[in-house]
Every structure is written in C-alpha cells, then in structure tokens.
Design goal:
Elements lengths: L4 H4 L5 E5 L4 H5 L2 H8 L4 E2 L3 H9 L5 H7 L6 H26 L8 E5 L8 H15 L4 E6 L2 H12 L4 E6 L2 H20 L9 E6 L1 H13 L9 H16 L3 H7 L7 E5 L12 H4 L6 E5 L1 H10 L10 H13 L4 H30 L1
Parallel strand pairs: 1-8, 2-3, 3-4, 4-5, 5-6, 6-7, 7-8
C-alpha cells in the first residue's frame, strides 16, 4: 500500500497533528488508525471543538447527568468531561511520545485553559497548573493564549515544568516575545537546578484568519496580486525568527542541559477562500522542526491530493517583499494582528459560553 501523503510530510521534518477531538474518534479506533496510517503525531483541541463535540452528540449526556448531581459549576463539569477525553487521547499518543529519540518532539495532546482567562495572568497560571495535575500525563500540553497578559503565564508555566501550547499568535513581534518567555522560563528552572529536558512547547501561529482580514484591504489598495500571500509570508518570516532565537549562545546553554526548542506550529490551516487550493496552508509551509495542526477535512483533502515537499524556506526574499509592499500601502500589520487577537478571543469565548449553556440545559 502506498504511504499516505499526510505521512510523507514527516519525511521533511514536519509533524502533522489533528485539530479535532471527541469521544467517538477515540472510542471507535479512528484516532488510532490516523496515527498508524496517516502518521498523525499529536492532537489539539479548543473550546469550539469541544462545544461541537458535546452539543452535537449524546456521548456526554450520561456523564453530564451524573456530574450535575453534585455542586459543580458548568465550567467544572465541562473540564471533567474534557479531561477524560484528553487523558484517553494522551494514552493513545503515548507510544508516539515514547518512540522519539528526543523527548519533547511529538505525541502531545493539547487542552486549553478557559478562554475567559485570556487577559488574566494569575487566573491562567492557576488553571494551567490545575489542568496539568488533573490530566497527569507527561504528554499533555496546556494551551495558553499568547496575549500580553499571557506572556508571564507562559514563562511561569514553563518554569514549573508544564508543557505549553501557546495559542492565538498572529504577529511577528508577539511571536518573538513568546519564544523569549519560553527560553526565560527554562532559564528559571535551570537556575534552581531543575531539569529542562522534559519540558516541551509549541507556538501556534494562526494563518487563514490573517488573509481573511487583509485580502479585502489589498484589493482596495490595488494589490490584488498579493491576496492569499500575507499569512504565508508572515509564517516564513516567523520561522526565520525561530531559527535565530534557537541558535544563540544563550540557547545553547539550555540545549546542553537537554532543552528542546519551542517549535512553531501552523494553526488555522483550513483554507477559507474557494479561489485557492484547499491544502495551500499545508503545502506552502512544510519544513524541518515544525508542526501543522489540521482539521479532519484538510487532512482528508491532503491525503487525496497533497504534494509533500519542503517549501518553508523557499522564496524568502519574496516573503519579505510581500510584507514590505503591505507596509508601503499603509496597511498596519500591528493593528491587524491586535484586531485578530481580540477577535480570536471572542471566537473562543462565544462557543465556550454556548457550551456552558448547553451543559446547563442538559442538567
């Protein structure tokens, strides 16, 4: 049988994680099959994914009824349900986690702190620690938004040995600040003699949402030829920041103690514009030491007609040129990434509230 095109991506040093979770995919053996046949090497979840899973099936009804007998809040009930799914997925992924030469490469399952805490540093630190202990698996990652208040939470969580998936990244400056938070979190551990060799992190850079917002502006400025190019150009430049941040003497001191770089993860990779190929955000950004988390329909599309090749470092001058033209046209990427972050928080708050309401209605 021919190797799956999805699995072939791994030959170029990139890991494919599945941006989806529910009980059915775990219990039916489908996730196990994706791991074996398509080489899926991790799982990510978010409030919108869980809202869909819990609201659109009866798989959780009995547990909700049982958990509702106590005095748990709706949020506590949700996390009880989610933690069970995450534990089961972690157990399925544990062979992948264990097979790597370098612990910290793959086999991770991500669980997000409440989106209501996106701008609450102390609340995020507290909940990240609680979720980490509740899941109690070496291969769980706690998702923390890369907001300004999230930076301290990320650094603290890393310094406490918690694996972190930094989410909602749109801008290059903020991405660099996140890499800095990871490095300084590890330095804090090293300073007090704690091991740094079993702490892992990814920085999730969101793609399609950038183009959705920027493309109409480009059209307006007479730069229609750049439509669909800004997110990919940003990602390519982010990767150059990654290479710079994780090749310094400062980083080498940590690497000598066994620390692994915080990999860039491409998120929001389902193409929303029918004018473009449905696999474009996967295709364009395959490269070493990166992760792409893709929803099921994108995975199936790639399996069908993907074209695996290493392209992340191709046309870097063109990527720089795209960003220069955007700036010259008076499009303020700082303002855009700020807007995207705010909208991103809202996009998770809404389904999370809907989810809590659904739990309330099922009681």
């Amino acid at each position: 049988m021919a190797t799956s095109k999805v699995k072939q991506i791994h030959d170029f040093g990139q890991s494919i994680w599945l941006d989806f979770i529910d009980r059915k995919i775990i219990d039916s053996g489908e996730l196990k099959k994706l791991i074996e046949e398509d080489g899926v090497r991790g799982v990510t979840s978010n409030p919108a994914i869980f809202e869909k899973a819990i609201s659109s099936s009866s798989d959780y009804d009995a547990d909700i009824a049982e958990l509702s007998k106590g005095d748990s809040t709706n949020e506590e009930i949700f996390f009880s349900l989610a933690i069970e799914d995450i534990k089961a997925a972690c157990d399925l992924m544990m062979p992948v986690y264990n097979e790597e030469d370098v612990v910290g490469a793959d086999g991770y399952v991500s669980l997000e702190v409440s989106p209501f805490l996106a701008l609450d540093t102390q609340g995020t630190i507290k909940q990240a620690s609680e979720l980490w202990m509740a899941v109690d698996r070496a291969n769980v990652m706690i998702k923390i938004p890369g907001t300004q208040p999230g930076l301290t939470a990320i650094q603290t969580a890393i310094s406490e040995g918690i694996n972190v998936n930094v989410t909602l990244l749109f801008g290059l400056d903020r991405y660099e600040a996140v890499a800095e938070a990871y490095i300084s979190g590890l330095e804090k551990r090293a300073e007090i003699g704690l091991p740094v060799d079993h702490v892992a992190s990814v920085a999730s850079f969101f793609l399609s949402r950038i183009d959705i917002l920027v493309d109409p502006m480009l059209e307006e400025k007479g730069l229609g030829e750049l439509k669909g190019e800004v997110a990919i150009a940003s990602a390519k430049l982010a990767y150059q920041i990654y290479k710079r941040m994780f090749s310094t003497d400062r980083w080498k001191k940590l690497a000598d103690k066994g620390a692994v770089p915080q990999r860039l993860l491409w998120a929001s990779t389902s193409n929303k514009n029918p004018a473009f190929k449905d696999t474009r955000y996967v295709e364009a950004l395959i490269g070493p030491n990166t992760v792409n988390t893709i929803p099921m329909e994108t995975l199936e599309a790639y399996r069908d007609h993907g074209d695996p090749a290493s392209r992340l470092e191709e046309d870097l001058d063109a990527a720089t040129s795209v960003m220069d033209k955007v700036k010259a046209a008076g499009i303020d990427m700082d303002a855009i990434t700020k807007q995207l972050e705010e909208e991103g928080i809202e996009k998770f708050n809404k389904p999370f509230q809907k989810l809590l309401d659904a739990i309330e209605n099922q009681k």
